[in-house]
Amino acid sequence: MALDIKEYNTTVQPTWCAGCGNFAIHVALKKSLIELNISPSETFISFDIGCNGNGADTVGTYGFKGLHGRSIALATGAHLANRKFTVFADIGDGGCFHEGVDHLINAIKSNYDMTILIHNNQNFALTTGQATVTTPKGKKMYAQPHGSPERNLDIDNFILNLHPTFFAKAYSGDPIQLTEIIKEAVKHKGCSVINISQSCPTYNKEMTPQWFNENILKTNTITEYDNQSFDQAKELLNTANTTKKIYTGIIYQDTTIPTFYDNLESRKGILSELTEEVKEYNIKNLLKYTNS
Amino acid sequence: MAKVIFQVDNNMYSNRTTIKIGGESGQGINTVGRMLNQALNRLGFFTFANREYPSLIKGGVASYQVDIADKKIYASAKKNNILCTLSEKSFHTYIYDLLENAIVIHDGKDVELSPDEEIFVQKNNIQIIYLDSVKIALEAGGIEIMANVVLLGYIWKILKLDVNILIEEVLELLEGKKIDIEAEKACVLAGYNHPSYRDTLGQDITLPSPSLSRKLLMSGNEALALGALSAGMRAFYGYPMTPATSIYKFIGETANETKVVVKQAENEITAVQMALGSMYMGTRALTATSGGGFDLMIESISCAGMSETPLVIVLAQRIGPGTGVPTWTGSGDIYTAVRAGHGDFPRCVISISDIDSAFTLTQKAFNIADKYQLPVIILTEKQIAEAIYSTENLPNIEKIEREISKGENRYQTTDSGISPRWIPTKGLKPYLHTSDEHTQEGYSTDIAQQVKEMSDKRERKLETLKTEIPEPQYFGNQDTEIIFVGSGSTKNAVLDAQAAGQNIAYLSYEYVYPLKTDKLLKLANENRRLILIENNQTGQLGKVIKEECGYEFKEKLLKYDGRPFFIDDILDYLNK
Fold first, then answer.
1. Structure ipTM over 0.90, yes or no
2. What percent of chain A has pLDDT over 70?
3. B10-214 with B218-391: one CATH topology?
């Protein structure tokens, strides 16, 4: 029986602003799960704090809305406990690059089999528009009447230089492409990172849908773009920087790196999940290892 | 230098013999100490071993002390019968901790004694022997590193024990390593048969008769790890911090056997978040840290409290705020554990005191976390975590209790405060855990009535938990006038003094929060002399007790110099 999007919804209505990119991101997320035939009770989503996390109770999967900046770390623990679940970490650009950037770096390093959705609206929106690492320098933000005094950072190059095994860019205004990307990210065996440019009509008024439409180029329209090539991915991001364009699509993928779990000597040949293994354990054989 | 006044009372040591190996970090004193301890336990003696060391890799002054007795002992004595020093600095550091007629084996050139030291040595009839253990090893056909077993052989001779047992143990410990067996044997014998030995050495050392039933040796951290494994812990997330690190070591080194997932996280926040994620999914995970790392975990503890996610954290205490004195003991984080985290929420704080309680209470901690869906903090101390205990066996394993149930709403209000919780499973109703205040369905809310209702529901769990928690345990004669009240390792020094014939009792708080005070108040009403004993500056357990029942201790024995309580401290206090 085909899954229905209603099964992924709850009775709670979203509280986002009209035109917020979060609507489309969550629709794309649900749609990708339907198309992959993954039911809500086989899905775990770790939500961060911020506008993205404010949609946690509108999604009918298993989930945990935890602490600001920590959704990736929490998701890794959930993933390792039961790999039968499809695991997502939902996080904003503020939580991801300010409060918890260490978790992003190490999740990429460890290559857990999960998907990180970065809702990048270029500001801390829920607290009414403070600057983040992606806010352009000089832009007037909360408590900064003369504009943000700091430069912004190139988070795409930052992510790519960590050699993620899956890195894509997407736009909330194109949920069809985003759905396809999320599906590929879920299918990818390893840590998938998607930087989603998200419209924020309240605090990022400059970047209108028109602006995005004029500045977005899709990687699949570039002839002979090989997303398995790290060099081409680097070049693409450099071109994006010099031409001030946003490329969406799968920027880079490496299918040769094993996941964290697959590298664990202790789990070789074990078919059960940690959640199935909680029972009294006889420690008799371990006593020879004490006083070490 | 001020004149030091010494009062050596050999009586309290009548039941034990103590040997201290001193030297610099990195000189191999742990190897000597460990081999000695293992060999003694092979003979069936009960021992208690404790390491003191600075927070550095090479240099400083470090020691490994082994106390030998004919029954279980869980604390060190302060003064020694035998001191074996590998550096001059350690000689000067530990010389005053010697008993009358004690023996010093100094590995190296003759040491120049200060006038005070000279007087002390004369007065106490201390005999000093100088050995060049490297030279002896080389002459016996060994190599430099075998100097360790030369010293062991010499100590063994003073103890008048069978050298063959020592050789067997040394070879067993070195099994699998590339060694020259004959040379090792020759070096042990060269130490054992060294011509400088004379019969007058160690004349008044009388070891109990060995039972020949080999004892188990393990550290508090190893017993704690074994408890967690017994309880079905399937994942460990750690970040190194003394004195918690050896929990990670034991679980990591046995992972191929236990098949657990072990992950060294990028920091303590990740470690605790991973534990939260794994516990939400329905397995059992553990993380362990010390004060600074625990501080980083505190927001997550509050999150576990609000989201009603089971969580078990080990807080291995050392002394002082900030970085403190990283390799020394204390129990100054009791109040942190009891109060950690913003907002009102229930939690459970358990304090272990030795290997038996480490093993049992860690299993109980998982049961409480699962059943009551709240954070449980296990308090240990450097003194318990890294000390080596000997025992015949560990307590029986605890039954796993989880109270997994089914229901419509994850945060359903109940009389007990405990809501139904089911393991996330395909086909079962999905639910959201949330750090937002929420409705019974798990949806965010700010409606006044719901906010209060949920807060009350969580608080009821604490009341329910209190009905399950025992009164503190009383050790001693029922009519004893003097009762020490404490938690953690303070128990061991008091029980040592008790075993040495002192008519004193100990009231042991294993459950520090929530805690029971009926028994304590009853004893107070009987006009018994209650003395709060704590390894911290402000009497933190006393504060928790006062908050609970208003009782204020009139007498407090507090020690916060990084050292554990010794039997000597208890007797000195009582003699005051």
1. yes
2. 100
3. no
Fold entry, domain B473-575:
Rossmann fold (3.40.50)
Q: Which residues of A touch B274 (CB under 8 A)?
A: 73-74, 76-77, 80
* Binding-face residues of B in 411-450 toward A, CB within 8 A: 423-436, 438, 442-444
Which of B38, B424, B442 has the CB atom closest to A291's CB atom? B38
> How near does any CA of chain B get to the CA of A183, in Å?
20
SS3 B94: helix
Q: Which residues of chain B have pLDDT under 50?
A: 1-10
Residue of B36, B249, B261 to mutate when probing chain A, most A C-beta within 10 A: B261
pLDDT of A97 above 60:
yes
Q: Which residue of B has its CA nearest to A45?
A: B432
Q: Kindly report, residue by residue over B85-117, the tens digit of the pLDDT.
A: 999 999 999 999 999 999 999 999 999 999 999
Q: Which CATH number fits domain B218-391: 1.20.1250.20, 3.40.50.800, 3.40.50.360, 3.40.50.970?
A: 3.40.50.970
Task: CATH number for B10-214: choose from 3.40.50.150, 3.40.190.10, 3.40.920.10, 3.90.180.10.
Answer: 3.40.920.10
Could you list the residue range(s) of the whole structural domain that residue A21 is in?
5-289
